[in-house]
Amino acid sequence: MCKPNYYAVIFTSKLKTSHPEYSKMAELMGTLAKKQPGFLGMDSARDGIGITVSYWEDLESIKLWKAQTEHIKAQKQGKNDWYSYYNVKICKVEREYEFRNEEDALL
Amino acid sequence: MCKPNYYAVIFTSKLKTSHPEYSKMAELMGTLAKKQPGFLGMDSARDGIGITVSYWEDLESIKLWKAQTEHIKAQKQGKNDWYSYYNVKICKVEREYEFRNEEDALL
Asked: Where do the DSSP E strands lie in A1-107?
């Protein structure tokens, strides 16, 4: 158990329909986010609902990413063309623990 | 924009292989979590990586769910049989905002 001190942005979304352009843009946003100051990591899965959780050093890093030029374009296009719904939660990670299968670790 | 005051548990996991028993247990855990005091909601998607985010009124509710009898059995079985990896992050939700497509809202 460690006591971390960083932020998570939980982005849950529903798409209107499957847009081929959407996957390209989502991939580009992932690539661009990685270049942002304070970016720590990202997990993403879509299975009916889409969940993307990105991790950031502080609130300032999150603010900068929200205001990044290409990201602003994607946010607008997302609202106009792709999403029927989305929700963004900005969270402080207070505790964290993990499990790794030992057999896998030996591979 | 509202300023919420609740907790999110971000559970990310990788399965060793696809186990039919796993889906049943995951579904049962979802049903049981909903009956717990302080449970507020849950979002889940699996697509290579699995991401389940559950929402809780406070840290005490999260502690009670972690210690729930059936859930303890599932955690043990998860470590022994299903997961090659998992990570749990306990987070305080500090800000939240959402978007709903107006056309959908009119349906």
From this structure: 6-15, 39-47, 49-56, 83-100
Confidence (pTM): 0.92
B101 touches chain A (CB under 8 A): yes
Residue B9: is it exposed, middle or buried by C-beta count within 10 angstroms (0-12/13-18/19+)?
buried
From first to last of its 107 residues, chain B has per-residue pLDDT tens of: 456 789 999 999 999 987 788 999 999 999 999 999 999 999 999 988 999 999 999 999 999 999 999 999 999 999 999 999 999 999 999 999 999 987 665 55
**In order of start, what are the domains of chain B with their CATH numbers?**
6-93 (3.30.70.100)
Contact across the interface for B51 and A53, Cβ inside 8 Å: yes
Does the distance separating the beta carbons of A88 and B91 come in below 8 Å? no
Residue of A nearest to B47 (CA): A45
Is the CB of residue B46 less than 8 Å away from at least one CB of chain A?
A: yes
A95 to each of B9, B10, B41, B89, B105, how far by Cα in Å?
10, 11, 20, 6, 37
* ipTM, interface predicted TM-score of the complex: 0.91
- Tens of pLDDT, residues B82-103: 999 999 999 999 999 999 987 6
B50 interface with A at CB cutoff 8 Å: yes
